[in-house]
Every structure is written in C-alpha cells, then in structure tokens.
C-alpha cells in the first residue's frame, strides 16, 4: 500500500510543480534517474546489501510504482529546479539528500 501512496503523492507534486513548457528537456533527467536507480539497486540487491520485501509490481527487484513515481518525478524536477548560483547548488545537494533519506527512513519504518 505504501508504494501506491508514494506513487500518487509523487505524481500530484509533479503535476503541481512541473513546467510543462520545459518538459521535453527535463523529461530526460527523469529517464536518467530511472536508469541510475535500477542499475544501482539491482547491483546492491545482487550483493545482498538490502532486499525489498513488498514490491507490489516487481521490476528487477524494485517496485515499479517506486521507479515510475518518486524516482522519475524527483529526477525530472531536479533538472527543472537546478539552481544557477554556485552556493545554492552546493546547498541543494545536502537538502535533496536529506529529503530523500527521510523518505527512505519512512518507507523502511513502515515495512518493519
């Protein structure tokens, strides 16, 4: 159930925040995020670094709803909202890392 909620929440945020005029360009960042996530997660699961217990719809060990939800949405929105100033780009990395880590912790807490 958590994958469905995360998927729906991600797409609601996407619809609210996306710049539809620049979507053709920013979309490729979302596709790249999917490729990176699948390559990293499948390799990590191959080495038994972690395991996803409740996939919903399985896509190489990851949940399809996770891949097409937050991974794609975050990848696309990161390209759209990439700051121009150097100090904001530097600040952007820990902020995005913290937000993603909080999401992962909430998902992990839900599954245990």
Structural class: mainly alpha
Helix percentage range: over 70%
Major sheet: size, sense and barrel closure? 2 strands, antiparallel
| Cα separation of the termini | 14 Å
Would you spell out the secondary-structure blueprint of this structure?
Elements: H1 2-17, H2 23-46, E1 58-59, E2 62-63, H3 64-80, H4 86-111
Antiparallel strand pairs: 1-2
Helix pairs in contact: 1-3, 2-3
Key terms:
2 strands; 112 residues; two-stranded antiparallel ribbon; 4% strand; mainly alpha
Characterise the protein shown here.
The protein is mainly alpha-helical. Helices cover 74% and strands 4% of the residues. It has helices at 2-17, 23-46, 64-80, 86-111; strands at 58-59, 62-63. Strands 1-2 form a two-stranded antiparallel ribbon. Strand 1 and strand 2 form a beta hairpin. Helix 2 crosses helix 3. The two termini are 14 Å apart. The mean pLDDT is 81.
């Amino acid at each position: 159930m958590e994958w469905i909620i995360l998927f729906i929440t991600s797409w609601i945020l996407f619809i609210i925040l996306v710049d539809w005029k620049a979507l053709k360009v920013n979309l490729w960042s979302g596709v790249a995020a999917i490729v990176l996530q699948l390559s990293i997660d499948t390799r990590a699961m191959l080495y038994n670094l972690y395991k996803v217990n409740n996939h919903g719809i399985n896509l190489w060990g990851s949940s399809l709803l996770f891949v097409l939800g937050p991974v794609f949405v975050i990848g696309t929105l990161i390209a759209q909202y990439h700051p121009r100033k150097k100090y904001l780009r530097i600040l952007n990395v820990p902020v995005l890392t913290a937000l993603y880590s909080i999401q992962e912790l909430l998902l992990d807490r839900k599954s245990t």
